Amino acid sequence: MFGRNLDVEFSYNEKIIFMPRKLSTGFAIMGLGTVIDGKPLFYDAVNEHGLYIAALNFPKSAAYFPKKAEQTNIASFEFIQYVLSRCSSVTEAEKLLKNANITDENFSEELENTPLHWFIADKKSAITAEPLSTGFTVYKNEIGVLTNEPPFDFHLKNLSNYTNLSPYEAENKFSKNLITEPFSRGSGAFGLPGDFSSSSRFIKAAFVKENSLCSESEEDFVTQFFHIISSVSMPRGSVRLDKGELEHTLCSTCATEDGKYYFRTYQNSRICILDIKKEHLDSSVLKIYPVFYPQDFAVLN
Q1: Secondary structure (DSSP) of 125-165
Q2: 32-47 confidence digits (pLDDT tens)
């Protein structure tokens, strides 16, 4: 399973979008995004083969360049659709992106491009793709987690600072001359970051994910997945920006390898389901679902 928290300070009128093969000119795609002038702009999505991509904010390090004749030019706002319409696996995505150049063109005069990097995953593996000043870089992502700044290689190195964390009760390794005992359960994870910085959320999400246990049922997997990403969600008011905006977890999503797409919102914690396999894959009509529904595990299509 793959998914993300969408942490933003305001809404762009998010919808769940189904883009059929005839419109993508390739594989069918379903995901969270917005539609402007009839064009879908995906924040995260899964295609009919179970390949998933999420775009995350990367404001300090992202570097876009003019088009280059010798490279594969991809606009940042088209990246998810471009890859998901053409690739059925991470391996195919790596080949497609081997000579990629993320261009500096804007979607429109009113909407400038957003600095982004991307998490790409299928049932076998995951990668992180980052447009850096040194060039477009793809990393193997064996931990299966991505947040925001700094670049991904920093987050991997930063994991080394937390190798002492454990889901088990802490043991006295300080000194044989001291008699100590933990104050409470959970002491093995003492020092696990709890703040909302991207580096801390990376560590916490990785720790919770790596120690997660659940049954083999899809319902339990989905429930557990949302508990994992809830551990790094942002309540409104906990992160305040310079102009008074309140960054918070507007929406959380979860996609499965067989094309089911689950989501819930800040206002409604009930989980809703869409299934790409139940859509008319060869349609020529963009299908849009609102993101607020009252049912528990509501099947929407």
Answers
A1: -EEEEEEETTEEEEEE-TT----SSS-HHHHHHHGGGGTT-
A2: 999 999 999 999 999 9
Contact, 289 vs 60, CB < 8 A?
Answer: no
Instruction: Indicate the pairing of strand 126-132 with strand 116-121.
Output: antiparallel
CATH of the domain spanning 2-299: 3.60.60.10
Q: Where are the domains of the chain?
A: 2-299
Contact (Cβ atoms closer than 8 angstroms) between residue 260 and residue 45: no
> Backbone phi, then psi, for 246, in 5-degree steps?
-115, 105
Q: What dihedral angle (degrees, nearest 10) is formed by the CA atoms of 134, 139, 145, 148? A: 0
Helix (H) or strand (E) holding 17: strand 15-19
Strand partners for 52 = 46, 121
pLDDT 10s digits, 86-107: 999 999 999 999 999 999 999 9
